[in-house]
Design brief:
By secondary structure, the chain is mainly beta. It has 3 helices and 15 strands. Helix content is 13%, strand content 48%. One of its GO terms (cellular component) is membrane.
């Protein structure tokens, strides 16, 4: 009944509600814990000259354990993939209150303790792989090590003055354990609360100390114990040193915005001409189309010439000024034909001023014979 109740308590703790995502350990950690230690009845085989005398009246008996506790400290390393390895030191204590199997009634009182160490390998189960996002991480593990068993001693006093027996001594041997538990995030980086059930076993016969009988006969002999099992229900604290938060998720990929239409267009003319070529009409159409796709309040149309002229001298500069204005008017008329409102177009003629390519005097330069359309 005691074992069943303790198992139920551990199960309920492992099923406690959760409120955030669990932590996977990467790097070093420490763990300290303690709890209830329940030892199954131990079978004792008494050997020696008086082992079969009264009392105890037989060569076999049992030690029945009552209350007990356990405590341990561990240092481990998490590999970031759920696997952990650790070394731990452990101490177990158990009261012994009965020794059935003797021919006379008696009262038994005593305790035993064990201490030693284990090397454990554990695996943390990531609940996210099952679609569960919770601040709890179940884990399982196994361990192997060495424990010393010490009896403190254990005295049995028999009724009617028949005497007493005493069992005591220390011996050590191989031990193993199985572990199942869960770790709960506390909201403090690195700190977790753990709950565990452990079963520790020490296989084979275990020879420990001397068996003493006092009464009508002498003393002598020893005791050989068989397989020992500890059932432990543990609450602990664990701290992981490497608790840097996970890297933020990658920023969502945002498609680059489509390039905006150009806001300035150049239309070129033949020498001493203001008539649009086929290519010039294409460029004007592009500018008209662009004015409908970008925020445009007005369209500026500026005409220019190179510094050569059909009429040299001051008369030529005046002529080129008029030629640049005629070129701008030709572009304006084409914009209107392409759907641009006339009220949105401002026309200017600058003649030979502001050349695109600087030249010497009276030089024919195709790039300076132009109209610039600017979208504002």
């Amino acid at each position: 009944m005691r074992l069943r109740t303790a198992l139920l308590a551990t199960t309920l703790m492992a099923a406690a509600p959760a409120a955030a995502s669990a932590t996977t350990i990467t790097g070093p950690y420490v763990n300290v814990a303690g709890g209830y230690n329940l030892v199954q009845n131990q079978h004792a085989h008494l050997n020696g000259a008086n082992a079969g005398g009264p009392p105890p009246g037989g060569t076999s008996s049992q030690l029945r354990h009552n209350t007990g506790f356990t405590g341990f400290g561990a240092f481990g390393w998490g590999f970031g993939n759920g696997l952990r390895a650790e070394v731990e030191g452990v101490y177990n204590y158990s009261n012994i209150d009965h020794r059935p199997g003797t021919s006379l009634p008696g009262h038994t009182r005593g305790s035993d303790q064990s201490y030693g160490g284990f090397v454990n390998v554990l695996y943390d189960i990531d609940l996210k792989q099952f679609g569960i996002d919770a601040p709890v991480t179940p884990f399982v593990g196994v361990g192997a090590g060495y424990l010393w068993q010490h009896y403190n001693p254990i005295d049995t006093n028999y009724a009617h003055g028949a005497g007493h027996t005493r069992i005591g001594g220390t011996n050590g041997g191989f031990a193993y354990q199985g572990i199942v538990g869960a770790a709960y995030d506390t909201g403090i980086p690195g700190f977790q609360v753990t709950t565990e059930y452990r079963m520790i076993g020490q296989p084979g016969s275990f020879m420990d100390g001397a068996f003493h009988y006092s009464g009508s006969k002498g003393t002598g002999g020893n005791v050989n114990f068989d397989h020992r099992f500890n059932h432990q229900f543990i609450l602990g604290l664990r701290y992981a040193f490497d608790t840097a938060p996970p890297p933020p998720p990658p920023a969502p990929v945002v498609a680059a915005p489509a390039p905006l239409p150009a806001r300035s267009y150049l239309v070129f003319f033949d020498w001493d001409k203001s008539v649009l070529t086929g290519r010039a009409r294409q460029i004007v159409a592009e500018a008209a189309q662009a004015s409908t796709h970008v925020q445009t309040t007005r369209i500026e149309v500026n005409g220019y010439t190179d510094n050569s002229a059909a009429h040299p001298g001051p008369r030529g500069e005046k002529y080129n000024l008029g030629l640049s204005l005629r070129r701008a008017d030709s572009v304006k008329a084409e914009l209107i034909r392409d759907g641009v409102p006339a009220s949105a177009i401002d026309v200017h003629g600058y003649g030979e001023a502001h050349p695109l390519v600087p030249t010497g005097p009276n030089t024919r330069e195709p790039q300076n014979r132009r109209v610039e359309i600017i979208l504002h």
